[in-house]
TrEMBL record:
<comment type="pathway">
    <text>Cofactor biosynthesis; biotin biosynthesis; 7,8-diaminononanoate from 8-amino-7-oxononanoate (SAM route): step 1/1.</text>
</comment>
<dbReference type="GO" id="GO:0030170">
    <property type="term" value="F:pyridoxal phosphate binding"/>
</dbReference>
<dbReference type="InterPro" id="IPR015421">
    <property type="entry name" value="PyrdxlP-dep_Trfase_major"/>
</dbReference>
<dbReference type="GO" id="GO:0004015">
    <property type="term" value="F:adenosylmethionine-8-amino-7-oxononanoate transaminase activity"/>
</dbReference>
<dbReference type="GO" id="GO:0009102">
    <property type="term" value="P:biotin biosynthetic process"/>
</dbReference>
<keyword id="KW-0093">Biotin biosynthesis</keyword>
<keyword id="KW-0663">Pyridoxal phosphate</keyword>
<dbReference type="Pfam" id="PF00202">
    <property type="entry name" value="Aminotran_3"/>
</dbReference>
<feature type="binding site">
    <location>
        <position position="388"/>
    </location>
    <ligand>
        <name>substrate</name>
    </ligand>
</feature>
<feature type="site" description="Participates in the substrate recognition with KAPA and in a stacking interaction with the adenine ring of SAM">
    <location>
        <position position="15"/>
    </location>
</feature>
<comment type="similarity">
    <text>Belongs to the class-III pyridoxal-phosphate-dependent aminotransferase family. BioA subfamily.</text>
</comment>
<protein>
    <recommendedName>
        <fullName>Adenosylmethionine-8-amino-7-oxononanoate aminotransferase</fullName>
        <ecNumber>2.6.1.62</ecNumber>
    </recommendedName>
</protein>
<dbReference type="InterPro" id="IPR015422">
    <property type="entry name" value="PyrdxlP-dep_Trfase_small"/>
</dbReference>
<keyword id="KW-0808">Transferase</keyword>
<dbReference type="InterPro" id="IPR005815">
    <property type="entry name" value="BioA"/>
</dbReference>
<keyword id="KW-0963">Cytoplasm</keyword>
<feature type="binding site">
    <location>
        <position position="265"/>
    </location>
    <ligand>
        <name>substrate</name>
    </ligand>
</feature>
Length: 421
């Protein structure tokens, strides 16, 4: 019995309706940009396995560093102890994070990084004797699946059964260059009617919404209003962080820096799970007191796991190399050329790109998990390319190490599949 059949006996997959989609492809090997299934078929991983393996799968540089760490310290609780990989990682992260960030808090994944950020903002004001219970978030935002993260998200396919249990969230439109005044008025109204603790946002690119891109200057105007009203700002850089938008972080392009930043995915280059919530010294100081209850009592068993920290350190080191920087620039420029070409296709309504991210909107209503979306996914896989459309949006987010030939195959595969629709 093969992996696919054995899988059906006991496993429950995420984001999947097993009644209508019972099969999951068995993958037995991944190296560089190539996935190999149990039948020997190969696929270019054009989305870096959910934007994690940005330096390719089983990167020798990263795995060798992790192997070395495994020989000395595998796991230790982080409440009472510290260790070199965590200390070193904090030092290296602070060097590349926006200049106002100074404290590093460890979590398990992107959703829990957001969860910690939300709790930091709420308790920040609680410790100051202020009751603030409202958050502001963008329409169509997505921040994770735990309850706090789910509350500030707005994609109903994820949240539907739980909406009666979520936090008080006030939503504002995403800036589009024409609605700045509308957003400013909405913000002022929310501030006057609610006790707002924070504004959470995906800077420049809304991933799960279909790689929707907004302007840095427009976002900055929103952050300025928040700062002027003493509202903490939380940048969810789980998807955008570590080079995806062309800079180390999307927040690098925005003049007003966030108070809190959430990081995961490419943090450990997809090798092992880990996330980080960073914050300013001012936020950290608000938790210092002789009263133990004012401390931040939020913890994960595998916080600052030494093996994960070593993977993150290796990833950051690679990110700073001229080779990777040149590769990111090459991918970005090549995306721009292909976008100009494909936007004239009769099945395409619009394209957009930012750094290594390219999104193509089709003139069909595929539905996030609709029939056409499934058809596209299957057709891409049949051509040896793993692309996972978001409804009627086909997007590319390839590993930084992708070759010219592999990138061209992704482009030609998209053209070929669109010609068959």
């Amino acid at each position: 019995m093969n992996l696919q059949e054995r899988d059906k006996k006991h496993l429950w997959h995420p984001l999947k309706q097993h009644q209508t989609h019972p099969n999951s492809l068995g993958i037995v090997k991944a190296k560089g940009c190539i996935l190999t299934d149990e039948h020997g078929n190969e696929y270019i991983d054009a989305i870096s396995s959910w934007y994690t393996c940005m330096f390719g799968h089983c990167n020798d540089f990263i795995t060798s560093r992790v192997y070395q760490q495994m020989q000395t310290l595998d796991q230790i609780m982080f409440s009472d102890f510290t260790h070199e990989p965590a200390v070193k990682l904090s030092e290296e992260l602070i060097k590349i994070l926006p200049e106002n960030q100074n404290r590093i808090f460890f979590n398990d994944n992107g959703s829990t990084a957001v969860e910690a950020g939300i709790k930091m903002a709420l308790q920040y004001y609680f410790n100051k004797g202020e009751k603030r219970n409202t958050f502001i978030a963008f329409e169509d935002g997505f921040h994770g699946d735990t309850f706090g993260a789910m509350s500030v998200s707005s994609l109903s396919v994820y949240n539907g059964p739980f909406e009666d249990f979520l936090m008080d969230i006030q939503r504002i439109p995403v800036p589009n260059g024409k609605n700045n005044e509308e957003i400013a008025q909405k913000l002022q109204q929310i501030v006057s009617e609610h006790n707002v603790a924070g504004f959470i946002y995906e800077p420049l690119v809304q991933g799960a919404a279909g790689m929707k891109i907004h302007n840095a200057e427009d976002l900055n105007s929103i952050l300025t209003i928040c700062k002027n009203n003493d509202i903490l700002t939380i940048a969810d850089e789980v998807m955008t962080g570590f080079g995806k938008t062309g800079n180390n972080f999307a927040s690098d392009e925005v003049g007003t820096k966030p108070d809190i930043i959430c990081l995961s995915k490419a943090l450990t280059a997809g090798l092992v799970p880990m996330s980080i919530t960073s914050c300013t010294e001012d936020i950290y100081t608000a938790f210092l007191a002789n009263d133990i209850a004012k401390g931040f009592f939020h913890c994960h068993t595998y916080s600052a796991n030494p093996i994960a920290c070593s993977a993150a350190l290796a990833s950051i080191e690679l990110l700073q190399t001229e080779e990777i920087k040149d590769n990111i620039e090459y991918i970005s420029n090549t995306h721009k050329i292909f976008a100009t070409k494909i936007e004239n296709h009769p099945k395409v309504t619009s394209t957009r790109h930012k750094g290594v991210i390219l999104a193509i909107d089709l003139n069909t209503n595929a539905g996030r998990y609709g029939t056409l979306r499934d058809q596209l996914l299957t057709s891409f896989m049949d051509e040896g390319v793993f692309l996972r459309p978001l409804g009627n949006t086909v997007y590319i987010q390839p590993p930084y190490i992708i070759t010219k030939e592999q990138l061209n195959k992704i482009y030609t595969t998209i053209e070929k599949v669109l010609d068959t629709l």
